[in-house]
Amino acid sequence: MFADAEPDISSSFPTFDTLGLSEHVLRAIMEIGYKKPLQVQVECFAPAKAGRNLVVQSRTGSGKTAAFALPILHRIDYSNSSPQVVVVVPTRELALQVHGEFERLGRYTGLKSVCIYGGTGFGEQFNRLMAGVHVIVGTPGRLLDHYRRGNFRTDQVHAIVLDEADEMLSAGFYDDIQKIFELLSNLKQVLLFSATMPFNMENLIKRYMKDPVRIDLSKDQVCVDRITNVAYSVDTSGPRIRTLIAIIEAEDPTAAIIFCNTRQETEVVAKYLGRRGYDAQYLNSDLSQTAREAVMAKIKAGELRLLVATDIAARGIDISFLPCVIHFDLPTDPQQYIHRTGRTGRVGRPGRAIAMVSVKDLHSLRRIESTLGIKLKQAETPTREESLKMLADRKIREFKERLDAKPAIPEEFTTLAKEILADPDAEGLVSLLVDAYMSPPPAAVDDRAPDRRESELARSDGRGTRGFRPSRRR
């Protein structure tokens, strides 16, 4: 959540040493290796530590988790093991991320915290609550479930944090958030963080926040200085997913999140890519919590190249190195474009946001451009032949790299290779071997035939029969 170096910051810009942190928190920061605080962390620290209400509009990836965690760690009575702070987030993944940041920053303070979310049993969460905690991080529904079961008290909760508040409201949690506020009879402080400010957010602010300090760091929401927004025309001569493959080969990202609008589409796209040798997995709410956490761990550790996800499932993914996001489907809401695009270009790093656009996407595209004040740059979509050639060249390079390592190849295999090459059906036999080599394990492969999956994706496109070329007026 912190940058190793923040560009264009003068020597007078506060450091962690001069920010006013306790020695325990400062020690944790130094051990973690964080160098300089980000702007949102500096601007939030003093008013939040003083107990003021905060409304912070800051883009995803700006370091806002630490912006509320740092001051909160200085407002906790560590001799009292009753809950004092509640942090509410929209998804399980974000809950785990925020809780992890609290544990890292508060490791020497004596902090006791718990992360509670749905999709898993109550037992371990109940035990942590019964053992005493200072901070509860959780999703709205599970927080209310635990309270109704009498698993924690709220009479000593003096602060609440709403993280990614706009996403909670858009996901239908407005009533749950109101119920949570009604439980906190001794509430003294509200910290609200959001990338956007929809109209119903102001109703929440007026009702529960007195004289809040407003901090707006969202002027570069789509980060035109760090994120390149690009549009590729969908090649309508084939299934939409073939354009995705062409984009992957042309862009060759080390890692990317591919956004789809439906859960079914994430699964089909990921399996299609896996069937063709790409390192891809999907993430949606149909997966078990264990499976979701496993996929999240792989993408965060850099062990997964392509993550195909829905908007909700991707919330809370904090990958500082992610160079690229791809909109397989454009979102209908421009604010969602901000959230998706905010997965890349984090903490000062460059990024690319790539949109796949067909004729029937034009309305959504124009709305995104006009609302956000951006223009997507045109990129030339490789032809089918070009993308297949790029794929072949890349795979041959990978094979040669393995060969250059001089692996021990049994003599039987070398003899078999010579016989295959001399056989009249050599091309088909080699294709069969390549298919077996590049395909994922059988358990992960869709049992439908490849051409059926392709036709399914083509039908689900439904976006016109003509290609689209974005305007060259950029």
Describe this structure in words.
By secondary structure, this protein is of the alpha/beta class. The chain folds into two domains: 23-217, Rossmann fold (3-Layer(aba) Sandwich); 227-385 and 446-461, Rossmann fold (3-Layer(aba) Sandwich), CATH 3.40.50. Helix content is 43%, strand content 14%. The chain contains 19 helices and 14 strands. It has a seven-stranded parallel β-sheet with strand order 3-4-2-5-6-1-7, sandwiched between helices. A seven-stranded parallel β-sheet has the order 10-11-9-12-13-8-14, with helices on both faces. Helix 3 packs across helix 4.
Return the structural class: alpha/beta
CATH superfamily membership of the largest domain: P-loop containing nucleotide triphosphate hydrolases
* Number of self-contained structural domains: 2
CATH-defined architecture of the largest domain: 3-Layer(aba) Sandwich
User: Low-confidence parts lasting 5 or more residues at pLDDT below 50?
Assistant: 1-11, 442-474
Apparent shape = elongated
Mean pLDDT: 84
Span between termini: 33 Å
Query: Which percent range describes the beta-strand content?
Result: 5-15%
